[in-house]
Specification:
Number of domains: 2
Structural class: alpha+beta
Helix content: 10-25%
Radius of gyration: 21 Å
Distance between the termini: 37 Å
Strand order of the largest sheet: 1-2
Order of helices and strands: EHEH
């Protein structure tokens, strides 16, 4: 099964002059005369429940694995002991220092677990 595609939910008048400060993300339209709020076709699609993916596909990465955030060796060992190295990918948390990150990456490599942001030395 593959994830559904959906249109880009753009913000109307995003590219007009002086609007560079507005980030390119969805914002609900609230103006009384807003064409997007009253769902005019020419203004593009709005996010709706129908665009949602099935429950079994939610949270999957593009390589059909799930990401697991790991803060220490204990959490990494628990992931390996669960024997789910094929369906999970480890992401080492940001506050983990380089020395521990190297250690965790080596440990994961020995047990055939992929680490997305490891340090390989």
């Amino acid at each position: 099964m593959q994830k559904k595609t959906h249109p880009k939910f753009n913000v109307p008048n995003q590219g007009t002059y002086g609007r560079g400060r507005i980030k390119d993300s969805w914002r609900k339209q609230r103006g009384i005369d807003n064409k997007k709020r009253i769902k005019m076709k020419k203004m593009g699609a709005s996010p709706e429940i129908g665009y949602r993916n099935p429950a079994q596909l939610r949270g999957l990465r593009c390589d059909n694995t799930r990401a697991m955030l790991v803060h220490n060796m204990k959490e990494l060992q628990a992931l390996i002991e669960a024997k789910r190295t094929e369906e999970f990918v480890a992401i080492i948390a940001k506050p983990v220092a380089t020395r521990k990150r190297i250690e965790m990456t080596k440990f994961a490599a020995q047990h055939n677990l992929r680490v997305t942001n490891g340090v390989y030395k």
